[in-house]
Amino acid sequence: MALESTRRRPSSNVTPTEGSGFAAQCPRKRRERASESFGSVVHLTPLEAFRTTSGGKFMRGYTDLHCHYIAGVDDGVRSEDDGVALLRALHAVGFDHVVATPHMRPAMFDNHAAPLREAYAQLRLRLDREADLPETSLAAEHFFDDVVFERLLRGQGLPYTAGRSVLIELATEQMPVALPARLFDLRMKRLRPVIAHPERYTVFHRDPTKQADALRKAGAVLLLDVCALVGKYGERALRAAEQLVENDGYYAACSDAHRIEDAEITGRAIDRLHALVGREAGEVLLRDRPKEILQGRIFDDRFE
Fold first, then answer.
1. Which class for 295: exposed (0-12), middle (13-18), buried (19 or more C-beta within 10 A)?
2. Confidence band (pLDDT; 50, 70, 90) for 59?
3. What is the pLDDT of residue 152?
4. How far apart are CA 298 and CA 304, in angstroms?
5. Among 241, 202, 285, 205, which residue's Cα sits nearest to residue 21?
6. CATH, residue 174
């Protein structure tokens, strides 16, 4: 089970309205203006990046389900100082809880649960002495190959806080063989698969909605890397993300931040998400549903 920090913030009572689609809250003209105005990726200060539709006021209470701020375990931050700075920058753009999700990927970042818990506990000693930081917790980004799949079935992964939801990364170019059956196997172990950044996967570039529906029917939910909405991963990922946002394909959104500067891009991407779907729907993706995932209370009303 993931470790929890003692830093806590009041939770929100805002919940999505049943049957209300994000596209319905986003008139076509507003979507078109947002699509035309996002521009290229630029680096802003967190205060500049987090422009909102509420007169420039900060919106808080977001939970980031996917971030790489533990140094020395994967391709995330390179030092403890950078990890602290990344957390502080994410806090500045609205995140009050940020989950560390280091890679668990054999032959590249072959991390195991126990050493990751030790690395996180060591970082916590530093975080507890720092100010202006979000609450933190630990999970992992599980690459869905045979090795990691077997670890998950044996209870050797790192699920989110309640132990009922698990972050899954798929291969970029090709979906695993018998993926729906394997996702069902996880559900039988009372683990809900949360698919990381589907907009980056090649198969999603051809027909995002069809692929999303197939994974959701198999019991998974999809997690948007919000930075795709400002072109961080290229045009195809951008268009796939836009279509999935408009068609209610995502359950929640995250930063997948690896570097300090990613927080600035995340702030701008949050601003664009609000422009696309409206503030209320954006906060469902960034605040309410991430909390549901942490608590193991996911309910996909379209496929349950």
1. middle
2. confident
3. 98
4. 10
5. 285
6. 3.20.20.140
